[in-house]
Specification:
Anthranilate synthase; alpha+beta; about 300 residues
């Protein structure tokens, strides 16, 4: 967890249909069709590698498919939709070494290493809090709009619009859930390693609303899916040439005293001699496909720095 000591557990993941009543480490796929809870056991599991099968696009292939994605977004009149890709990197580094380097380099991120026969081995350093609830006091963030950390120009209309879309969505969901004392702060700049984002913090009182219901309502946010959510999800399924699997899913801990859940970003699936990085860009009607490619390249630097 950000700012905390490293924790290591032995055991195995169990697939479940719902997070209702869950207690412990949980994660889901992006589309929420797969949900897992970790069960601690004395016996230590090994490192599991899945078959390498996802489509890796060249830049030219991405520009072509990104243009088709943008055209469909305009035709369907979506406010926003996220188009992701997979980047393949050679790496023979041991998974634990990658994890340790990420923990050192990104102390403010949620850094993890997980392995299971269900999904193979994944590692990540996510900057995005989905939900943090402690003693009934909750908070979440709208994190959207991205540029290189070295870019000191004013934020553009596209990035500000992306941020507004996500903020409005979260505000609406918190109200629909009938959470109490919902408040939001002013938009700030947030640095996450090689990139920076626009961020807006929200706070609320949980009341009688279950953690699982808040997760179900908020995820996936427009920051990783789009708006309208169902239409964006359908466009992603039609146009992306890979399975997102755990990328942009929910990951973290549910507990009685404190629950901390994150969106699984800046992540990679590890194999014996390579890694697949999952990286996405937020498309709106103002998007330039070449710029979206550069955004994904900048986001990849979080893991490339270590790999």
């Amino acid at each position: 967890m950000p700012g905390a000591e490293i924790q290591q557990y032995s055991g195995q993941f169990k697939e479940v249909s719902s997070f209702n009543g869950a207690n412990g480490f949980i994660l889901s796929s992006f589309d929420k069709k797969q949900k897992f809870i970790f069960e601690k056991q004395v016996v230590e599991g090994g490192i599991h590698y899945k078959a390498f099968k996802e489509k890796v696009q060249s830049k030219d292939e991405y520009l072509k498919s990104g243009t088709a994605f943008l055209n469909k977004l305009k035709t369907k009149k979506l406010s926003k939709a996220i188009f992701s890709r997979v980047k393949e990197v050679h790496s023979s580094e041991k998974p634990k070494n990658i994890f340790n380097e990420l923990a050192i380099n990104y102390p403010d991120a949620f850094v993890y290493l997980i392995s299971s026969p269900f999904f193979g081995t994944w590692v990540g350093a996510s900057p995005e809090v989905l939900l943090h609830v402690e003693k009934g006091q909750g908070r979440t963030v709208a994190l959207a709009g991205t540029k290189s950390v070295s870019d000191n120009k004013e934020w553009g209309a596209k990035e500000k619009n992306e941020q507004k879309i996500v903020s409005d969505f979260i505000d609406q969901k918190l109200v629909q859930l009938k959470l109490e004392k919902v408040k939001s702060e002013k938009i700030k700049e947030f640095i996450a390693g090689p990139v920076k984002h626009l961020v807006k913090h929200f706070s609320f009182e949980q009341g009688e609303v279950a953690i699982a219901d808040i997760i179900e309502s908020l995820h996936p946010t427009p920051a990783v899916c789009g708006l309208p959510r169902e239409s964006a999800m359908k466009l992603i399924e039609e146009e992306e040439q890979h399975n997102r699997s755990l990328y942009a899913g929910v990951i973290g801990v549910i507990a009685e005293d404190e629950s901390k859940l994150f969106v699984n970003l800046r992540c990679a699936q590890l194999f014996e001699q390579k890694a697949l990085l999952y990286i996405g860009g937020g498309y709106t009607v103002d998007s330039i496909v070449e710029d979206e490619w550069l955004e994904t390249e900048n986001k990849a630097k979080t893991l490339l720095k270590v790999l």
